[in-house]
Design goal:
Helix content is 52%, strand content 5%. It starts with a strand and ends in a 10-residue tail after the last helix. It contains six helices and two strands, in the order βαβααααα. It has helices at residues 16-27, 35-46, 64-74, 79-86, 90-103, 109-118, and strands at 2-4, 32-34.
Length: 128
């Protein structure tokens, strides 16, 4: 699932490249989710009780880099923000996110965020 920018009064200001990317995302069977919704979910999940230590083993299927990416997804960062933080191409982050979702059998980024908090990979910190 891809986070979209905050909704504006009108989508008339949306860049053509963003619209094309959104169409490709939907055509690939992924969903679009407003960044404000993602951040609300993060705040809600962050307020939940501490993680069950035994659930962390679910992350064993991930490489260390995929864990890093998942932790940044859990902070509410977009693919481009994660790419900038890790100094890699955005396409690399997109590949990491797809592999994370596949390996952990998750439907979308929201489920990934929830799992990151449930396993203790992410902790309660205000989103950026």
């Amino acid at each position: 699932m891809r986070s979209t920018p905050e909704p504006r009064a009108s989508y008339k200001r949306t860049q053509p490249e963003q619209l094309i990317e959104a169409i490709h995302t939907i055509a690939a069977g992924e969903a679009l989710l407003a960044l404000s919704v993602t951040r609300t979910v993060i705040r809600h999940v962050a307020g939940q009780p501490p993680a069950n230590p035994g659930s962390r083993s679910r992350l064993d299927a991930l490489t260390p880099r995929e864990r890093d990416v998942l932790a940044l997804v859990a902070r509410g960062l977009s693919n481009s923000e994660i790419a900038a933080e890790l100094v890699v191409e955005e396409s690399t982050i997109k590949s990491h996110v797809k592999r994370i979702l596949a390996k952990l059998e998750l439907r979308d980024r929201v489920q990934a965020v929830i799992l990151a908090y449930q396993t203790g990979l992410a902790t309660a910190q205000p989103p950026p």
